[in-house]
């Protein structure tokens, strides 16, 4: 009986746990649906409010127009605007992107062999070095012993060779006098050739031992400045340690500096190699550096959906690798273009428009001009058509005027 009760309790607990999981899942699903529904409701409300605002703006303009017609003097006194004359000039559009400064020549120093214990360090951070200059020396005691042993073996073989050659020459001379046997001459010659072969092997061993010993001299792979060195005498310097940017030795040559940035793929058709760029590095306190795109990446990064570009920069002590910078790529330029402040361009159901003023007798009257807008950059919009140079546009107060309204120009 007790066993059955325990089993029933277990089944009941399992059912309760399953019910709780289903309840939580249902609540989660309901919460997600509720959140989605709330977002949808907010979007509908936003569109409704926009429509109400447009209708209200239209009513306000209509009332202002009626008041202006009924009481022109009052309307003129109420509407005070600032204006500017439209001019023509060169217009440039830039793609503005963030990137970093990099050096063309950056190298990490590494041992050519298995490495070893550091015996001496000849440079420090900031030291200027030349390509091939020894900057670090590893313990080479065993390697030097190998060189000495190989050299000693070479010396022994050279002495044996000299002796064997003397014997060979004597045997040969005696044989010419019909003294001795021919086999003695042949054996003496074979002995010379054997020792010569052994000597060549010993000389090769000396060369190998010297190369191994020379691996203890760690040299700079390029000319430049020691940008990082974090190693001390007595520590182990291995290829693994050298490959770690945090513990390795880095040499930087700042004679060739470049700006590197990633460009979104939607600009792929708008830029090309040789395009003019401006590179701004705020920390230098200098004007933007002028350059051109020297490298355009040939592939799109599948993660960032962008391609890499580079622009060479002049050598400058204030420019440092990994410094943040802004690149502006010139992708469009128009000469003798009509331009206006971007904020004066307004939009309604018919499209883009600006307000200009014209002289009507002794009054200035507002006129609405539909315009075709080109590119916009740095607060300026290019106007393709709709207004011409010499016309007067409203630059302040344009939000509350309407077609045909009389205005007063602010002094």
Q: How do you describe this structure in short?
A:
The protein folds into 4 domains: 1-70; 79-86 and 345-409, conserved putative lor/sdh protein from methanococcus maripaludis s2 fold (Beta Barrel), CATH 2.40.420.20; 140-215; 253-334, Elongation Factor Tu (Ef-tu), domain 3 (Beta Barrel).
Descriptors for this entry?
36% helix, rod-shaped, five-stranded mixed β-barrel, 5 helices, 20 strands, 411 residues, conserved putative lor/sdh protein from methanococcus maripaludis s2 fold, alpha+beta, six-stranded antiparallel beta barrel, single chain, 4 domains, 36% strand, disordered N terminus
The appropriate CATH architecture of the largest domain is: Beta Barrel
Strand content: 35-45%
Strand order of the largest sheet: 2-9-12-11-10-13
Overall mean pLDDT stands at 85
Biggest sheet architecture: 6 strands, antiparallel, barrel
CATH homologous superfamily designation of the largest domain: Efflux pump adaptor protein, beta barrel domain
Radius of gyration: 43 Å
Low-confidence stretches: 1-7
Q: Helix and strand succession?
A: HHEEEEEHHEEEHEEEEEEEEEEEE
Overall strand count: 20
| The top level CATH class name of the largest domain | Mainly Beta
**Portion of residues in helices?**
25-40%
Structural domain tally: 4
CATH topology of the largest domain: Elongation Factor Tu (Ef-tu), domain 3
Structural class: alpha+beta
The total count of helices amounts to 5
Give the oligomeric state of the chains in this entry, treating copies of one chain as homo and distinct chains as hetero: single chain
Distance between the termini: 103 Å
Principal-axis shape equals rod-shaped
């Amino acid at each position: 009986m007790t066993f059955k009760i325990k089993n029933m309790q277990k089944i009941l607990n399992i059912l309760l746990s399953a019910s709780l999981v289903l309840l939580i899942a249902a609540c989660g699903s309901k919460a997600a649906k509720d959140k989605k529904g709330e977002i949808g409701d907010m979007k509908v409300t936003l569109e409704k409010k926009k429509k109400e605002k447009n209708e209200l703006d239209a009513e306000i303009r209509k009332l202002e127009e009626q008041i202006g017609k009924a009481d022109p003097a009052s309307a003129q006194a109420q509407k005070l605007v600032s204006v500017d004359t439209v001019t023509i000039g060169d217009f440039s559009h830039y793609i503005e992107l963030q990137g970093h400064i990099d050096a063309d020549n950056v190298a990490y120093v590494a041992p050519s062999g298995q490495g070893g214990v550091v015996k001496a360090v000849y440079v420090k951070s900031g030291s200027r070095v030349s390509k091939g200059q020894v900057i670090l020396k590893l313990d080479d005691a065993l390697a030097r012993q190998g060189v000495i042993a190989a050299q000693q073996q070479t010396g022994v073989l050279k002495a044996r060779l000299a002796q064997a050659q003397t014997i060979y020459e004597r045997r040969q001379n005696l044989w010419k006098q019909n003294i001795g046997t021919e086999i003695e001459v042949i054996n003496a010659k074979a002995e010379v050739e054997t020792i010569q072969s052994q000597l060549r092997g010993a000389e090769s061993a000396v060369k190998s031992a010297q190369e191994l010993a020379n691996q203890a001299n760690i040299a700079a792979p390029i000319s430049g400045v020691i940008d990082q060195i974090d190693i001390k005498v007595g520590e182990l310097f291995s290829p693994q340690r050298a490959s770690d940017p945090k513990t390795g030795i880095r040499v930087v040559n700042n004679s060739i500096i470049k700006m590197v940035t990633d460009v979104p793929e939607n600009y792929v058709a708008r830029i090309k190699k040789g395009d003019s760029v401006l590179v701004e590095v705020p920390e230098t306190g200098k004007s933007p550096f002028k350059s051109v795109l020297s490298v355009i990446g040939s592939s799109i990064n599948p993660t960032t959906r962008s391609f890499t570009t580079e622009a060479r920069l002049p050598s400058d002590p204030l420019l440092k690798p990994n410094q943040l910078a802004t690149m502006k790529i010139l992708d469009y330029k128009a000469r003798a273009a009509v331009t206006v402040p971007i904020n004066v361009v307004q939009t309604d159901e018919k499209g883009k428009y600006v307000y200009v003023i014209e002289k009507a007798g002794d009054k200035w009257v507002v006129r609405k001009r539909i315009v075709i807008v080109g590119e916009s950059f740095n607060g300026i919009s290019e106007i393709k058509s709709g207004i011409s140079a010499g016309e007067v546009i409203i630059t302040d107060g344009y939000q509350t005027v309407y077609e045909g309204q009389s205005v007063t120009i602010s002094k």
